[in-house]
Write a structure and sequence with these properties.
eight-stranded antiparallel beta sheet; 35% strand; 417 residues
């Protein structure tokens, strides 16, 4: 057990170093959310914030992490799976015991040895594996939502009769492995509930192997206001977030839920998830204006996170008080830009007035501008990635004045608060 804990701790050290957001003991919910998104972009599996908190020791964890969690973390730090990671661990364990001070020196060394170990583990696994393999074409999997509001349930129809009699059949409703539901191979219907809007890839899983996927789109009816939590979000009344032609999150809203953003960091904001038509990440222009005037206690950095959701991923960046630029970040297209290792001073704003933000994507280049200055440029993948939503999260409180999407100088969407 102790050795297993040491192995997990070492893997988490590699995760910590790769993410470059300081020691995980200092991370807050936003840091774990960034890690969750980063893992999804790089591995295709998005571990939940609560799972990452538990395995990192930030929340109570009374059982061992699942094999899926360990495999995903291993892939994130450069290994084929957890087994390969453990094989590599064995090659450095003896030296560690002889000289504990050398621990960190072995994180990214001996690349040739790493390849040999990985290949050995690969062949050993397949030579010794007696498990059945399944063809996706032998299974069927479909799903449809039952409403246009939130929460929203989805009815999944499936055929897993090709699985072995004793096989474990599960439906995973999105990226969160905890939301797997065991079903009978002879059944054909299962239902799941979704509490958040977005674009999800649901999965039919046989003995921990994904055999079929179905894209599930959960839209909002209009702008949805929420206070975020690790489980079920708190939905806000429409009349509470609309104020004088703006969307607002006020300290009063938190007080109604007995939440004090001065003593605990909490995020609240807005989602608009919908079909924007022929709007893709490689050709659009977005303008918006945001402000965060709440500067009390632990919320002194006044962070505002802006998220553009697209099919299969997201582009997200954080604005904040100029004195807190070290804590800001940008993430998109599998790339993390951390304020601790990059100059993100142009994401720092005084918030004496609304900050004007513009995204311009053209010719496979995406430019993020804040108050007229280019804060960062991305290379955009050639593959078409359809925009399906926009979200804003405010630390403590904040307001949103406008949102507009354009394509070829024509307005595709304009907010009407």
């Amino acid at each position: 057990m102790e050795k297993s804990k040491r192995n997990i701790a070492f893997c988490l050290e590699l995760v910590e170093e790769k993410l470059s957001r300081g020691k995980r003991s200092t991370w807050d919910a936003n840091d774990f959310r960034v890690l969750s998104n980063s893992i999804k972009e790089e591995t295709g599996t998005l571990l939940s914030v609560s799972t990452l908190k538990r395995i990192s020791g930030k929340a109570n964890y009374h059982s061992n992490p699942s094999s899926t969690t360990l495999d995903t973390l291993s892939r994130y730090v450069g290994y084929k799976d957890w087994r390969t990671f453990l094989e590599y661990e064995k090659t450095i364990e003896v030296d560690r015991e002889d000289n504990p001070k050398k621990n960190l020196r072995y994180k990214y060394v001996f690349p040739l040895l790493l390849i040999v170990v990985a290949l050995s583990a690969y062949f050993l696994f397949y030579l010794n594996s007696g498990d059945a393999t399944y063809r996706p074409e032998d299974f069927s999997f479909n799903g449809k939502s039952v409403t246009t509001n939130l929460p929203n349930s989805v009815v999944f129809e499936f055929d897993a009769s090709a699985a072995d009699e004793n096989a474990k059949i599960e439906i995973q409703q999105d990226w969160d492995e905890k939301k797997r539901v065991i079903v009978d191979k002879n059944d054909s219907v299962s239902t799941c509930i979704y509490y958040r809007p977005g674009f999800f890839q649901s999965k039919l899983v046989v003995n921990d192997s994904i055999v079929a996927e179905k894209d599930i789109f959960i839209p909002t009816q209009d702008w949805l206001g929420v206070i975020e939590s690790d489980s079920v979000p708190l939905y806000l009344r429409t009349e509470d977030i609309h104020q004088n032609g703006k969307l607002v999150i006020t300290p009063k809203i938190f007080s109604e839920f007995n939440i004090n953003p001065s003593i605990s960091i909490v995020a609240a904001g807005f989602y608009q998830v919908r079909d924007f038509g022929d709007l893709y990440m490689d050709d659009f222009e977005m303008t918006t204006s945001v402000i965060n005037e709440f500067k009390n206690g632990v919320s002194i950095c006044q962070r505002v996170q802006i998220i553009v959701l697209y099919e299969g991923g997201m582009l997200t960046f954080v604005l904040g008080n100029k004195g807190c630029i070290s804590e800001l970040s940008i993430y998109g297209f599998g790339k993390m830009i951390d304020g601790k290792k990059n100059d993100l001073s142009l994401l720092g704003v005084e918030f004496e007035d609304y900050a004007d933000v513009k995204l311009i994507s053209k010719n496979q280049k995406l430019n993020i501008l804040v108050n007229g200055f280019s804060a960062y440029r991305f290379d955009v993948p050639i593959s078409k990635q359809k925009i399906v939503g926009i979200a804003y999260l405010f630390e403590g409180a904040g307001a949103l004045k406008n949102v507009e999407f354009r394509k070829n100088n024509e307005v595709v969407y304009a907010s009407d608060f």
